Amino acid sequence: MFERIENMKVLVTGVSGQLGYDVMNELAKRGHEGIGSGMEAVYAGIQDGTSVETMPYVQLDITDENAVSKMIHEIKPDVVIHCAAWTAVDVAEDDNLVEKVRLVNAKGTQYIASACKDIDCKMVYISTDYVFNGQGETPWQPDCKEYAPLNVYGQTKLEGELAVANTLDKYFIVRIAWVFGKNGKNFIKTMLKVGKTHDEVRVVNDQIGTPTYTLDLSRLLVDMCETEKYGYYHATNEGGYISWYDFTKEIYHVAGYTTKVVPVTTAEYGLTKAIRPFNSRLDKSKLIENGFQPLPTWQDAVERYGIEGLTVITPAVHGDDRGYFMETYNENDMKEAGIDITFVQDNQSMSKKGVLRGLHYQKQFPQAKLVRVIKGSVFDVAVDLRAESKTYGKWYGIELTEENKKQFLVPAGFAHGFLVLSDIAEFCYKVTDFYHPNDEGGIAWNDPELGVEWPQVYGEYPGSSDASGYRMEDGTKLSLSAKDQVLLGLKDTFKF
User: Fold this and answer.
1) Are both 376 and 429 inside the same structural domain?
2) Which of 2, 27, 92, 362 is positioned for an S-S bond with 34, CB 3.0–4.6 A?
């Protein structure tokens, strides 16, 4: 690892957008001086009580060369994180707008880079996979120079890249794809809106890439600013390459929608003004090579975006033919990720295949849990019981195994349980409060309203939580405690 630079002054462009909003809040968390900028007279993003609302803000038109130079020379930032851009891909194809798009994405970037050079300041430039031709199946390398943009947006973003690289030595060019964040329009919001009003949606399944959650990206960008590990990088969430169809399926799963998702080809979907890349795969190995933490999985990101508080942690595992080493908990890393909780107890249990424990919670002494599996595999489930939550009654499940070594952070205010999928499973968890036997509650594991999709489980709902009629696919009977087989459904359950 490397020594991090503290107490930076950072100018952030496009602060009213998805990424700029998250970057400002991340800077505040770390004690850096963040200054936001945008075309508007005042900050115009969401008003949610976060730090960005009260942090310094300056009005700046990045297409005004003199204004850019004056502002950067006056502020004298240590870093400029350039998030502002023209991102309306189809509109950019209009003949009468091409030069306007270029003015924003290319010339505006050049103005910022030149001013940064004048004061010897670092610059972070956010770019896109659209600088490549989008063909083939091989992931694009960050230092690849085989540029061939398919549309105006990609071409102008490439011109911005070249402006930065040809002007500065102290730069980070970070390419991302399929961006979503809370502060602005994005694919998730669009699909949720459509899913509410349609029984069926058609989604492209031959464009392949990985989503990028701006909250996760903002942490990486600030990490970079705290170093001098300059160069080109790719940064999307982990979790494997997927299609827009796969992305939509997961969005609806998290939201609890029953909307049917139909996969179609790009040709079947119909032409758009701008040509889209089929191959948006980005190789991110350079992040690890330079000591940066990869972004969490996109599945985890969608869950956190949809159900606030839930977090899946994939720890770094260092191993060779002799064995492996991993950190199972690091308080500093948790706080850096915005998770500031105190654990008071560690627990461990062993269960046989078919054992289902849950779905449990404590009413007056609610516990947050950090759970993992050290032997075998389980399907772990959390249910949101926070009365004021937008996702009340929604559930999320994840398979935890000794091989994947994933950990699942279940906040207070959730019911929790798991099903053992292997012959034997050893389950470990940290908790934020002690066990109070007279304070325990629970939800029926098979409540139709809740609709948890327990893997490998077959049986007809008997009208109660009785498990006697259920089997796993190999014939193993489900095994629940007596008290778990008399629990009530969601509508009769305690709310936090």
Assistant:
1) yes
2) 27
Backbone angles phi, psi at 224, to 5 degrees: -60, -45
82 an active-site residue?
Answer: no
- Domain assignment of residue 65, yes or no: yes
Give the model's pLDDT for residue 163: 98
Instruction: Show Cβ contacts of residue 97 under 8 Å, excluding neighbours closer than 6 positions.
Output: 91
Domain CATH number, residue 377: 2.60.120.10
- Residues with Cβ < 8 Å from 190, sequence gap 6 or more? none
Domain count, the chain: 2
304 within a domain of the structure (yes/no) = no
DSSP bridge pairs for 326: 317
The boundaries of the domain holding residue 17 are 9-181+210-236+278-295
* Band (279; pLDDT cuts 50, 70, 90): very high
- The question of whether 429 is a catalytic residue gets the answer yes
Which one is catalytic: 21, 43, 429, 470? Answer: 429
pLDDT tens track for 63-73:
999 999 999 99
Question: Is 83 found in the same domain as 58?
Answer: yes
What is the bridge-based pairing of β-strands 231-234 and 200-204?
Answer: unpaired
Name the active-site residue from 230, 241, 360, 392.
360
